[in-house]
Protein backbone atom coordinates (compact mmCIF):
# COMPACT_ATOMS: atom_id res chain seq x y z
CA UNK A 1 0.00 0.00 0.00
CA UNK A 2 1.40 3.39 -1.03
CA UNK A 3 0.14 6.77 0.14
CA UNK A 4 0.93 10.00 -1.65
CA UNK A 5 -0.27 13.40 -0.40
CA UNK A 6 -0.11 16.88 -1.80
CA UNK A 7 -1.95 20.13 -2.34
CA UNK A 8 -3.24 21.85 -5.46
CA UNK A 9 -3.28 25.64 -5.51
CA UNK A 10 -5.00 28.17 -7.78
CA UNK A 11 -1.57 28.65 -9.38
CA UNK A 12 -1.49 24.95 -10.28
CA UNK A 13 -4.91 25.22 -11.92
CA UNK A 14 -3.83 28.34 -13.81
CA UNK A 15 -0.75 26.49 -15.09
CA UNK A 16 -2.78 23.48 -16.27
CA UNK A 17 -6.24 22.14 -15.50
CA UNK A 18 -4.77 18.62 -15.82
CA UNK A 19 -2.11 17.47 -13.36
CA UNK A 20 -0.35 14.11 -13.15
CA UNK A 21 0.92 12.09 -10.21
CA UNK A 22 3.19 9.08 -11.02
CA UNK A 23 2.53 5.80 -9.22
CA UNK A 24 4.78 2.78 -9.64
CA UNK A 25 3.52 -0.63 -10.71
CA UNK A 26 6.29 -3.14 -9.87
CA UNK A 27 7.31 -5.97 -12.20
CA UNK A 28 4.72 -8.71 -11.99
CA UNK A 29 2.04 -6.32 -10.68
CA UNK A 30 -1.37 -7.59 -11.73
CA UNK A 31 -3.60 -4.70 -10.70
CA UNK A 32 -3.68 -1.03 -9.89
CA UNK A 33 -6.22 0.35 -7.42
CA UNK A 34 -6.19 4.09 -6.71
CA UNK A 35 -8.32 5.96 -4.18
CA UNK A 36 -8.45 9.77 -4.09
CA UNK A 37 -9.39 11.56 -0.87
CA UNK A 38 -10.01 15.29 -0.46
CA UNK A 39 -12.61 17.63 1.00
CA UNK A 40 -15.41 17.34 -1.57
CA UNK A 41 -17.32 20.17 0.10
CA UNK A 42 -14.47 22.56 -0.75
CA UNK A 43 -13.29 21.50 -4.24
CA UNK A 44 -13.98 19.32 -7.28
CA UNK A 45 -11.13 17.10 -8.50
CA UNK A 46 -11.53 14.76 -11.47
CA UNK A 47 -9.83 11.36 -11.64
CA UNK A 48 -8.32 9.37 -14.52
CA UNK A 49 -5.33 7.25 -15.53
CA UNK A 50 -2.63 6.76 -18.20
CA UNK A 51 -0.34 3.72 -18.38
CA UNK A 52 3.49 3.95 -18.58
CA UNK A 53 3.29 4.21 -22.38
CA UNK A 54 0.99 7.23 -22.10
CA UNK A 55 -2.03 5.26 -23.33
CA UNK A 56 -5.44 6.26 -21.98
CA UNK A 57 -6.70 3.77 -19.40
CA UNK A 58 -9.77 5.51 -18.05
CA UNK A 59 -11.58 8.51 -16.66
CA UNK A 60 -14.32 8.92 -14.07
CA UNK A 61 -14.21 12.67 -13.49
CA UNK A 62 -15.60 13.53 -10.07
CA UNK A 63 -18.12 10.67 -10.18
CA UNK A 64 -15.81 8.18 -8.42
CA UNK A 65 -13.21 8.34 -5.69
CA UNK A 66 -11.57 5.01 -6.53
CA UNK A 67 -10.81 2.81 -9.54
CA UNK A 68 -9.19 -0.55 -10.28
CA UNK A 69 -7.52 -1.67 -13.51
CA UNK A 70 -6.49 -5.27 -14.19
CA UNK A 71 -5.70 -7.27 -17.30
CA UNK A 72 -9.17 -8.80 -17.52
CA UNK A 73 -11.50 -6.29 -15.88
CA UNK A 74 -11.67 -2.69 -14.71
CA UNK A 75 -13.95 -0.29 -12.90
CA UNK A 76 -16.58 1.13 -15.31
CA UNK A 77 -15.00 4.10 -17.05
CA UNK A 78 -11.61 2.36 -17.14
CA UNK A 79 -10.06 -0.03 -19.66
CA UNK A 80 -8.75 -3.49 -18.81
CA UNK A 81 -5.69 -4.75 -20.66
CA UNK A 82 -1.94 -5.24 -20.38
CA UNK A 83 -0.40 -4.15 -17.09
CA UNK A 84 3.10 -2.90 -17.95
CA UNK A 85 5.36 -2.21 -15.00
CA UNK A 86 6.69 1.27 -14.45
CA UNK A 87 5.30 4.70 -13.71
CA UNK A 88 1.56 4.95 -14.32
CA UNK A 89 0.11 8.46 -14.28
CA UNK A 90 -2.89 9.28 -12.15
CA UNK A 91 -4.64 12.16 -13.91
CA UNK A 92 -6.33 14.77 -11.79
CA UNK A 93 -8.54 17.45 -13.29
CA UNK A 94 -8.54 20.60 -11.20
CA UNK A 95 -12.16 21.47 -11.93
CA UNK A 96 -12.73 23.63 -8.84
CA UNK A 97 -9.93 24.78 -6.50
CA UNK A 98 -10.61 27.26 -3.66
CA UNK A 99 -8.37 30.32 -3.13
CA UNK A 100 -6.66 28.66 -0.16
CA UNK A 101 -5.88 25.51 -2.19
CA UNK A 102 -7.01 21.93 -1.60
CA UNK A 103 -5.13 19.09 0.06
CA UNK A 104 -5.43 15.59 -1.37
CA UNK A 105 -4.23 12.04 -0.72
CA UNK A 106 -3.86 9.03 -3.01
CA UNK A 107 -3.86 5.48 -1.68
CA UNK A 108 -2.39 3.01 -4.18
CA UNK A 109 -2.56 -0.78 -4.07
CA UNK A 110 -1.12 -3.27 -6.55
CA UNK A 111 -2.82 -6.33 -5.04
CA UNK A 112 -5.43 -7.89 -7.32
CA UNK A 113 -8.91 -7.69 -5.74
CA UNK A 114 -11.62 -10.23 -6.64
CA UNK A 115 -13.39 -9.36 -9.89
CA UNK A 116 -16.89 -7.86 -9.68
CA UNK A 117 -19.97 -9.53 -11.05
CA UNK A 118 -20.17 -8.89 -14.81
CA UNK A 119 -23.01 -6.87 -16.26
CA UNK A 120 -25.92 -9.14 -17.12
CA UNK A 121 -26.48 -9.82 -20.82
CA UNK A 122 -29.20 -7.77 -22.40
CA UNK A 123 -31.55 -10.66 -23.01
CA UNK A 124 -34.77 -10.32 -25.01
CA UNK A 125 -36.61 -7.05 -24.71
CA UNK A 126 -40.25 -6.74 -25.70
CA UNK A 127 -40.74 -3.76 -28.02
CA UNK A 128 -42.84 -1.00 -26.48
CA UNK A 129 -42.81 1.35 -29.47
CA UNK A 130 -46.02 3.24 -30.22
CA UNK A 131 -47.64 2.85 -33.61
CA UNK A 132 -45.75 4.96 -36.13
CA UNK A 133 -47.57 8.02 -37.40
CA UNK A 134 -44.85 9.79 -39.41
CA UNK A 135 -45.00 9.81 -43.22
CA UNK A 136 -41.80 8.58 -44.90
CA UNK A 137 -40.71 7.91 -48.50
CA UNK A 138 -40.99 4.32 -49.75
CA UNK A 139 -38.34 2.09 -48.20
CA UNK A 140 -37.63 4.58 -45.40
CA UNK A 141 -38.68 5.04 -41.80
CA UNK A 142 -38.29 7.76 -39.20
CA UNK A 143 -36.42 6.28 -36.23
CA UNK A 144 -36.85 7.77 -32.77
CA UNK A 145 -33.88 8.11 -30.46
CA UNK A 146 -31.94 9.96 -27.81
CA UNK A 147 -28.45 11.24 -28.72
CA UNK A 148 -27.19 12.04 -25.22
CA UNK A 149 -27.27 9.50 -22.37
CA UNK A 150 -24.97 8.29 -19.60
CA UNK A 151 -24.36 4.92 -17.95
CA UNK A 152 -22.41 3.68 -14.92
CA UNK A 153 -19.29 4.09 -17.07
CA UNK A 154 -19.35 7.78 -16.14
CA UNK A 155 -21.85 9.55 -13.88
CA UNK A 156 -25.04 7.67 -14.78
CA UNK A 157 -26.59 5.04 -12.52
CA UNK A 158 -27.78 2.44 -15.06
CA UNK A 159 -25.77 -0.32 -16.72
CA UNK A 160 -25.77 -0.57 -20.50
CA UNK A 161 -28.35 -3.42 -20.47
CA UNK A 162 -30.59 -1.37 -18.20
CA UNK A 163 -30.34 1.63 -20.52
CA UNK A 164 -31.30 -0.58 -23.47
CA UNK A 165 -34.42 -1.75 -21.66
CA UNK A 166 -35.35 1.77 -20.62
CA UNK A 167 -34.93 2.97 -24.20
CA UNK A 168 -37.27 0.29 -25.49
CA UNK A 169 -39.82 1.07 -22.80
CA UNK A 170 -39.66 4.75 -23.78
CA UNK A 171 -40.58 3.87 -27.37
CA UNK A 172 -37.15 4.58 -28.88
CA UNK A 173 -35.35 2.86 -31.76
CA UNK A 174 -31.81 3.99 -30.91
CA UNK A 175 -29.75 5.35 -28.03
CA UNK A 176 -26.37 7.03 -28.17
CA UNK A 177 -24.49 6.24 -24.94
CA UNK A 178 -22.10 9.14 -24.48
CA UNK A 179 -20.14 8.66 -21.27
CA UNK A 180 -17.76 11.41 -20.18
CA UNK A 181 -14.22 11.20 -21.59
CA UNK A 182 -14.20 7.39 -21.84
CA UNK A 183 -15.03 4.58 -24.24
CA UNK A 184 -15.07 1.73 -21.72
CA UNK A 185 -18.75 1.13 -22.49
CA UNK A 186 -18.22 0.62 -26.23
CA UNK A 187 -17.48 -3.15 -26.10
CA UNK A 188 -20.87 -3.71 -24.43
CA UNK A 189 -22.96 -2.03 -27.14
CA UNK A 190 -22.91 -4.78 -29.76
CA UNK A 191 -24.93 -7.28 -27.69
CA UNK A 192 -28.43 -8.05 -28.98
CA UNK A 193 -30.81 -5.73 -27.16
CA UNK A 194 -33.72 -4.91 -29.48
CA UNK A 195 -32.54 -1.30 -29.80
CA UNK A 196 -29.66 0.21 -31.78
CA UNK A 197 -26.95 1.36 -29.34
CA UNK A 198 -24.67 4.03 -30.82
CA UNK A 199 -21.08 4.34 -29.53
CA UNK A 200 -20.45 7.81 -28.18
CA UNK A 201 -18.12 9.84 -25.99
CA UNK A 202 -18.98 13.12 -24.34
CA UNK A 203 -15.71 15.01 -24.63
CA UNK A 204 -15.96 16.99 -21.41
CA UNK A 205 -14.04 20.06 -20.25
CA UNK A 206 -14.80 23.06 -18.06
CA UNK A 207 -15.12 25.19 -21.21
CA UNK A 208 -17.72 23.12 -23.01
CA UNK A 209 -18.73 19.62 -24.05
CA UNK A 210 -19.16 17.82 -27.38
CA UNK A 211 -20.51 14.41 -28.29
CA UNK A 212 -18.36 12.29 -30.59
CA UNK A 213 -20.49 9.63 -32.32
CA UNK A 214 -19.29 6.42 -33.94
CA UNK A 215 -16.99 3.51 -33.27
CA UNK A 216 -13.96 5.77 -33.60
CA UNK A 217 -11.90 5.11 -30.51
CA UNK A 218 -11.04 7.51 -27.72
CA UNK A 219 -10.91 11.27 -28.35
CA UNK A 220 -8.37 13.11 -26.18
CA UNK A 221 -10.30 15.72 -24.21
CA UNK A 222 -7.04 17.52 -23.33
CA UNK A 223 -6.42 18.47 -26.97
CA UNK A 224 -7.71 21.71 -28.58
CA UNK A 225 -11.33 21.60 -29.76
CA UNK A 226 -10.31 21.91 -33.43
CA UNK A 227 -8.32 18.71 -32.97
CA UNK A 228 -11.42 16.93 -31.65
CA UNK A 229 -13.23 17.88 -34.85
CA UNK A 230 -10.43 16.81 -37.21
CA UNK A 231 -9.87 13.54 -35.33
CA UNK A 232 -13.55 12.59 -35.38
CA UNK A 233 -13.91 13.47 -39.07
CA UNK A 234 -10.77 11.53 -40.05
CA UNK A 235 -12.12 8.45 -38.24
CA UNK A 236 -15.55 8.68 -39.90
CA UNK A 237 -17.54 9.88 -36.92
CA UNK A 238 -19.70 12.92 -36.20
CA UNK A 239 -19.22 15.70 -33.67
CA UNK A 240 -21.97 17.71 -31.98
CA UNK A 241 -21.65 20.74 -29.68
CA UNK A 242 -23.61 19.92 -26.52
CA UNK A 243 -25.88 22.20 -24.45
CA UNK A 244 -24.06 25.33 -25.70
CA UNK A 245 -25.89 27.67 -23.29
CA UNK A 246 -26.04 25.43 -20.21
CA UNK A 247 -25.13 26.87 -16.80
CA UNK A 248 -21.44 26.32 -15.99
CA UNK A 249 -20.60 24.25 -19.10
CA UNK A 250 -21.67 26.61 -21.90
CA UNK A 251 -19.58 26.52 -25.09
CA UNK A 252 -16.46 28.69 -24.76
CA UNK A 253 -13.96 26.92 -27.03
CA UNK A 254 -12.71 28.84 -30.09
CA UNK A 255 -13.10 26.92 -33.35
CA UNK A 256 -11.63 27.51 -36.80
CA UNK A 257 -14.24 25.15 -38.30
CA UNK A 258 -17.75 24.23 -37.26
CA UNK A 259 -18.93 20.76 -36.19
CA UNK A 260 -21.72 19.36 -38.38
CA UNK A 261 -24.21 18.90 -35.51
CA UNK A 262 -25.45 21.17 -32.72
CA UNK A 263 -27.46 20.00 -29.71
CA UNK A 264 -30.09 22.69 -30.08
CA UNK A 265 -32.69 21.04 -27.81
CA UNK A 266 -30.85 20.19 -24.63
CA UNK A 267 -31.17 19.76 -20.88
CA UNK A 268 -30.54 23.45 -20.20
CA UNK A 269 -33.55 24.59 -22.27
CA UNK A 270 -35.86 24.56 -19.27
CA UNK A 271 -38.35 27.04 -20.69
CA UNK A 272 -38.95 26.64 -24.42
CA UNK A 273 -40.35 30.15 -24.72
CA UNK A 274 -36.71 31.23 -24.38
CA UNK A 275 -35.29 31.87 -27.85
CA UNK A 276 -31.62 31.80 -26.80
CA UNK A 277 -30.85 28.33 -28.28
CA UNK A 278 -32.33 29.34 -31.64
CA UNK A 279 -30.40 32.63 -31.59
CA UNK A 280 -27.20 30.74 -30.74
CA UNK A 281 -27.73 28.36 -33.67
CA UNK A 282 -28.22 31.28 -36.07
CA UNK A 283 -25.08 33.02 -34.80
CA UNK A 284 -22.93 29.88 -34.58
CA UNK A 285 -23.76 28.30 -37.95
CA UNK A 286 -27.28 28.34 -39.42
CA UNK A 287 -26.37 25.39 -41.67
CA UNK A 288 -25.38 23.12 -38.76
CA UNK A 289 -27.79 20.23 -38.26
CA UNK A 290 -29.80 20.78 -35.04
CA UNK A 291 -30.32 17.67 -32.92
CA UNK A 292 -31.69 16.93 -29.47
CA UNK A 293 -30.37 15.08 -26.44
CA UNK A 294 -31.79 14.51 -22.99
CA UNK A 295 -28.50 14.17 -21.04
CA UNK A 296 -30.20 11.31 -19.21
CA UNK A 297 -28.47 9.99 -16.08
CA UNK A 298 -31.05 8.23 -13.92
CA UNK A 299 -34.69 7.20 -13.89
CA UNK A 300 -36.85 9.48 -11.77
CA UNK A 301 -34.14 12.10 -11.43
CA UNK A 302 -33.45 14.92 -13.87
CA UNK A 303 -34.05 14.68 -17.62
CA UNK A 304 -36.35 12.00 -19.02
CA UNK A 305 -35.04 9.47 -21.54
CA UNK A 306 -36.28 10.50 -24.99
CA UNK A 307 -37.07 14.04 -23.87
CA UNK A 308 -36.39 15.40 -26.42
CA UNK A 309 -36.63 12.77 -29.15
CA UNK A 310 -34.43 13.07 -32.22
CA UNK A 311 -36.03 11.53 -35.31
CA UNK A 312 -33.71 10.33 -38.09
CA UNK A 313 -34.95 9.26 -41.53
CA UNK A 314 -33.19 6.00 -42.43
CA UNK A 315 -33.44 3.72 -45.51
CA UNK A 316 -35.12 0.86 -43.62
CA UNK A 317 -38.66 -0.30 -43.06
CA UNK A 318 -37.82 -2.23 -39.90
CA UNK A 319 -35.84 -0.48 -37.10
CA UNK A 320 -33.95 -3.72 -36.47
CA UNK A 321 -32.31 -3.36 -39.88
CA UNK A 322 -30.71 -0.02 -38.99
CA UNK A 323 -26.96 0.22 -38.42
CA UNK A 324 -24.79 2.81 -36.71
CA UNK A 325 -23.25 3.77 -40.05
CA UNK A 326 -26.68 4.25 -41.61
CA UNK A 327 -27.80 6.43 -38.71
CA UNK A 328 -24.68 8.61 -38.86
CA UNK A 329 -25.04 9.04 -42.63
CA UNK A 330 -28.63 10.25 -42.18
CA UNK A 331 -27.59 12.65 -39.40
CA UNK A 332 -24.77 13.96 -41.57
CA UNK A 333 -27.25 14.57 -44.40
CA UNK A 334 -29.60 16.50 -42.09
CA UNK A 335 -32.52 14.08 -42.35
CA UNK A 336 -33.50 15.01 -38.81
CA UNK A 337 -36.47 16.26 -36.78
CA UNK A 338 -36.77 16.93 -33.03
CA UNK A 339 -39.87 16.58 -30.85
CA UNK A 340 -40.59 16.89 -27.16
CA UNK A 341 -41.14 13.13 -26.85
CA UNK A 342 -41.83 10.08 -29.05
CA UNK A 343 -45.54 10.96 -28.97
CA UNK A 344 -45.44 14.77 -29.19
CA UNK A 345 -46.04 17.01 -32.24
CA UNK A 346 -43.47 16.55 -35.01
CA UNK A 347 -42.36 18.70 -37.94
CA UNK A 348 -40.80 16.83 -40.87
CA UNK A 349 -39.21 17.57 -44.19
CA UNK A 350 -40.41 14.91 -46.59
CA UNK A 351 -41.23 14.81 -50.29
CA UNK A 352 -40.18 18.44 -50.76
CA UNK A 353 -42.70 19.63 -48.17
CA UNK A 354 -42.88 20.50 -44.50
CA UNK A 355 -45.34 18.18 -42.76
CA UNK A 356 -46.70 18.93 -39.29
CA UNK A 357 -48.03 15.88 -37.43
CA UNK A 358 -50.34 16.09 -34.38
CA UNK A 359 -49.86 19.86 -34.18
CA UNK A 360 -53.34 21.27 -34.79
CA UNK A 361 -53.48 24.96 -33.87
CA UNK A 362 -49.70 25.44 -33.73
CA UNK A 363 -47.71 27.98 -35.75
CA UNK A 364 -45.09 26.96 -38.29
CA UNK A 365 -42.23 29.47 -38.36
CA UNK A 366 -38.50 29.93 -38.91
CA UNK A 367 -35.70 32.50 -38.97
CA UNK A 368 -37.51 34.49 -41.67
CA UNK A 369 -40.28 35.33 -39.16
CA UNK A 370 -42.99 34.01 -41.45
CA UNK A 371 -45.79 32.22 -39.56
CA UNK A 372 -48.34 29.76 -40.88
CA UNK A 373 -51.17 28.17 -38.88
CA UNK A 374 -51.39 24.37 -38.69
CA UNK A 375 -54.86 22.92 -39.16
CA UNK A 376 -55.60 19.22 -38.61
CA UNK A 377 -53.59 16.25 -37.37
CA UNK A 378 -51.46 16.25 -40.52
CA UNK A 379 -50.84 19.42 -42.50
CA UNK A 380 -48.44 20.01 -45.41
CA UNK A 381 -46.76 23.30 -46.38
CA UNK A 382 -44.39 24.48 -49.08
CA UNK A 383 -40.85 24.16 -47.75
CA UNK A 384 -38.79 27.14 -46.61
CA UNK A 385 -34.98 26.98 -46.35
CA UNK A 386 -33.19 26.65 -43.02
CA UNK A 387 -34.40 25.25 -39.70
CA UNK A 388 -38.15 25.49 -39.14
CA UNK A 389 -40.10 24.94 -35.96
CA UNK A 390 -43.57 24.66 -34.49
CA UNK A 391 -44.61 26.90 -31.60
CA UNK A 392 -47.81 27.27 -29.63
CA UNK A 393 -49.74 30.43 -28.72
CA UNK A 394 -47.22 31.20 -25.95
CA UNK A 395 -44.37 30.99 -28.50
CA UNK A 396 -43.19 27.79 -26.82
CA UNK A 397 -41.23 25.57 -29.23
CA UNK A 398 -43.00 22.24 -29.83
CA UNK A 399 -40.90 20.65 -32.60
CA UNK A 400 -37.98 21.44 -34.92
CA UNK A 401 -37.12 20.31 -38.45
CA UNK A 402 -33.48 20.45 -39.54
What does this structure look like?
The protein folds into three domains: about 1-110, Jelly Rolls (Sandwich), CATH 2.60.120.380; about 140-340, TIM Barrel, CATH 3.20.20.140; about 345-400, no CATH class. It has a 13-stranded mixed beta sheet, sandwiched between helices. Strands 1-8-3-6 form a four-stranded antiparallel beta sheet. The longest helix is centred in the middle third of the chain and has 10 residues, at about 160-170. The model has no long low-confidence stretch (mean pLDDT about 95). By secondary structure, it is mainly β. It has five helices and 24 strands.
Query: Which structural category fits the helices and strands?
Result: mainly beta
CATH fold call of the largest domain: TIM Barrel
**Main sheet?**
13 strands, mixed
State the total count of DSSP E strands: 24
Amount of beta strand = 35-45%
Oligomer: single chain
Pick out its properties:
402 residues, four-stranded antiparallel β-sheet, 3 domains, Jelly Rolls, elongated, 5 helices, 11% helix
Topology:
Layout: E1 2-8, H1 10-15, E2 18-25, E3 31-38, E4 44-50, E5 56-61, E6 66-70, E7 86-96, E8 102-109, E9 141-149, H2 160-169, E10 174-180, E11 196-205, E12 208-213, H3 225-234, E13 238-241, E14 261-265, H4 276-284, E15 289-292, E16 309-314, H5 324-332, E17 336-339, E18 346-350, E19 353-357, E20 363-366, E21 371-373, E22 378-382, E23 388-391, E24 397-401
Parallel strand pairs: 9-10, 10-11, 13-14, 14-15
Antiparallel strand pairs: 1-8, 2-7, 3-6, 3-8, 4-5, 4-7, 9-16, 11-12, 12-13, 16-17, 17-24, 18-19, 19-22, 20-21, 20-23, 23-24
Amino acid sequence: MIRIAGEWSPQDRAASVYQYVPVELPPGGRALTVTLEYDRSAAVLDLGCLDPDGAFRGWSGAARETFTITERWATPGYLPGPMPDGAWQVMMGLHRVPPEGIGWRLTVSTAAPPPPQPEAPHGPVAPQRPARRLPAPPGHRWLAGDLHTHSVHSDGVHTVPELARLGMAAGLDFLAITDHNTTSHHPLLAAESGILLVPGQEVTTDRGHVNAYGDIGWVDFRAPADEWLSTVEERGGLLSVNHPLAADCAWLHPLAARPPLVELWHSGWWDRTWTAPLAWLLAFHPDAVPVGGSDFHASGRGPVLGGPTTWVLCPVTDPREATVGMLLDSLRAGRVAISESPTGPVLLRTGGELVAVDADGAYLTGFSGRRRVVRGDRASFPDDPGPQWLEDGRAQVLAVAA
